[in-house]
Design a protein that fits this description.
single chain; 651 residues; alpha+beta; nine-stranded antiparallel sheet; eight-stranded antiparallel sheet; 7 helices; 15% helix; globular
């Protein structure tokens, strides 16, 4: 049965591709030939073929992910604050997010483009004469590079020779006239720009100076980062000179020091392409539980969903919920998990392989949809669902793994990233692991950093999939992989889970736990839906929802774009809707939670033709300039074990 459904899906996808070509003909005519014979030809084609049907999303989900680059503000280093200790440090370019430099004391490029190179863009000799005043660097060539397209991640100032230290005022200094500046002289005028963020790096401290009013340059132990917004300079203006200025107020050492300017360059890595899995053959996951590779499928539509699981599935912290203001389940209902104020546990449920299938595998794929509520503001980090082989002996709660007694690889969340950070209000997630090579008593944690896919928006559904392969005893060849919305977020192939054959994958552990000694001040909640455990890659569901206003063509706000939205547009044309909205509807027709289904109100092709004729005649008289409308993308993925840290969680 599952094989038949998959075959039929392939046929539908082929037809959808043909319909996409028809759609493009119609859109092109509507956009560029409103008052020509070509329009009538297009309408004739439209009448013959009817409205093109839904197009299979190439991503397998309706949640687009942008290509992340060093230009993206989310990829920038963070200034942070001293109070929160959340900005750039000697180890991190964003400490709150756990995002690490590739190199200790920061990453830069020199004037030749060499990573950690020594050819400064500009060098200034600082003289220790105990005279406060401005020090200047001619950074014209670097500003030209930024304006030509190089990623503007700011200046990196470091000592290249001599001694020191020299102390300077930062942008937080209370005297405006002594703060840093970038003075840019152009043929369109002179622009005096303040830094939008700056900070110092210190090898003597793991802390973030963030908003300190001063910073220092000293040998290889103290450096300065400073970033400027160049958008005030007219695009066509020619720069004749750009000077970076810092006010030096204290000097030590009674000698000189040469300080060079380099450009900061921290690259989070690109976003991986979407990888489809067995879910592609099941629109909206309907019927996926019948696939021979699927152990269990749980969509929380039934009150007895817990029949396949151990643990308290009817606890007060677990509730099946339907629609509510600001929230929509993927189907008719989803599981809401609450960690109450002053408590730790929200969920502690297990899918036990021995009980359910009579054997314990050595490789498992586990996918679930996760959505963090707007109230998700934990005081500390904690645990999310994952996999384990604890056997009641080790792999949790400070019970150290030694390769013979147990292991675990749960998911993990960190505290929500504070305001002012490039990743503000996102929830960092990753893995929390007890493994045979662990050194401390508690597990190792790491955020999925590549492409920054492990930083989730609130009030938005994400497909979270994990694959775990046990290692061969005696070899470090275990695998742990994660995908967010079908994009590879993390991959490591040298894990050591066990040293004996007896340890297998005992369970999928549905654990939501507020770690540490602290507890949340108020109730915090997350949602889980469309959970699949399988022996092969699952991938994101087709027709997956994102968050509010994912589709600008969804005029009736039912999470899909269909004929009912066209009727809404027609009723509101000339008021709340215009011709550009119709273009949105055409671009997005067939997308959304369920695409086009029998329950949708879809006029017959001839009815569409009559409506379109009338609408196009109106549009011909009221045509306005077309503008690009981009659907706000979710912020997504990470590879490697960069940033692995130990923690002191009690569980």
């Amino acid at each position: 049965m599952a094989g038949t459904e998959f075959s039929e899906t392939i046929k539908v996808s082929t037809t959808a591709t043909e319909n996409q070509e028809e759609r493009e003909v119609i859109k092109h005519a509507m956009r560029s030939s409103m008052n020509s014979a070509a329009l009538l030809v297009s309408i004739g084609v439209f009448a013959l073929v009817g409205l093109p049907g839904p197009v299979a999303e190439s991503s397998g989900a309706s949640c687009p992910t942008p290509t992340l680059s060093p230009f993206d503000p989310r990829a920038m280093w963070a200034e942070g604050t001293q109070a929160n200790n959340d900005g750039a440090t000697r180890d991190f370019y964003n400490r709150a997010a756990g995002l690490t430099w590739d190199n200790y004391m920061g990453d830069w490029r020199d004037s030749a483009g060499v990573a950690q190179g020594s050819s400064a863009y500009a060098t200034s000799t600082l003289i220790d004469d105990d005279t406060p005043g401005f020090q200047s660097w001619d950074v014209t060539s670097l500003v030209d590079e930024w304006r030509a397209g190089a990623p503007n991640q700011g200046f990196y100032l470091r000592q290249v020779s001599g001694s020191g230290p020299f102390d300077f005022y930062s942008r937080e200094h209370p005297v405006p006239g002594e703060r840093p500046s970038l003075n840019v002289v152009t043929d369109a005028g002179t622009f005096v720009l303040p830094p939008i963020t700056d900070t110092g790096l210190r090898n003597s401290s793991f802390g973030s100076p963030g908003d300190a009013p001063t910073f220092r340059i000293k040998s290889n132990s103290n450096s300065i980062l400073s970033r400027f917004d160049l958008s005030a300079i007219p695009e066509g203006a020619s720069v004749t000179n750009a000077t970076f200025r810092l006010f030096s107020f204290a000097e030590f050492g009674s000698s000189s020091m040469d300080v060079g300017v380099f450009r900061v360059f921290n690259d989070p890595g690109g976003v991986a392409p979407v990888v489809q899995g067995l879910a592609q053959g099941f629109q909206g996951d309907a019927g996926i539980g019948a696939h021979p590779d699927v152990y269990v499928y749980t969509d929380f539509e039934s009150a007895d969903w817990g029949s396949n699981y151990k643990g308290n599935t009817n606890g007060s912290t677990l509730q099946r919920v339907t629609s509510s203001p600001g929230f929509e389940p993927i189907g008719n209902s989803a599981l809401r998990v609450t960690i109450p104020a002053g408590e730790h546990y929200g969920m502690n449920v297990q899918y036990d392989f021995s009980e359910q299938i009579g054997a314990e595998p050595t490789e498992v794929f586990f996918r679930y949809y996760a959505r963090f509520d707007d109230n998700w503001n934990p005081g500390e980090g904690g645990k999310l669902p994952g996999m384990a082989g604890r056997y009641g002996a080790a792999g949790w709660g400070g019970r150290k793994s030694d390769g013979t007694n147990g292991w675990s690889a749960r998911g993990m969340f960190r505290t929500t990233i504070p305001a002012g950070n490039p990743l503000e209000d996102r929830v960092p997630i990753g893995n929390y692991v007890y493994h045979a090579d662990m050194e401390g008593q508690y597990g190792n944690e790491f955020v999925w950093q590549d492409g920054l896919l492990g930083f989730l928006e609130k009030d938005r559904w994400y497909s979270v999939e994990q694959r775990l392969v046990l290692n061969t005893p005696g070899l470090n060849d275990g695998i742990l992989e994660t995908w967010i919305d079908g994009r590879l977020a993390y991959r490591e192939t040298d894990w050591n889970w066990r040293t004996v054959d007896d340890l297998k994958i005992e369970e999928v552990w549905l654990n939501v736990y507020h770690g540490g000694l602290g507890t949340p001040d108020t109730d915090i909640q997350m949602y889980i839906d469309n959970l699949v455990i399988a022996s092969s890659y699952i991938g994101p569901m087709t027709g997956a929802p994102c968050g509010p206003e994912t589709h600008t063509g969804d005029f009736d706000n039912d999470n899909d774009v269909d004929g009912a939205d066209f009727l809404k547009w027609q009723q509101g044309f000339g008021g709340i809707y215009n011709a550009t909205h119709l273009t949105d509807w055409l671009d997005q027709y067939g997308s959304g939670v369920g695409g086009i289904s029998a329950g949708n109100v879809v006029p017959e092709p001839n009815s569409y033709l009559l409506m379109m004729l009338g609408c196009l005649l109106v549009m011909q008289r009221t045509r306005s300039a077309e503008v690009d409308r981009t659907i706000a993308p979710p912020f997504p993925s990470p590879t490697g074990m960069t940033g692995m840290l130990k923690n002191n969680y009690a569980e």
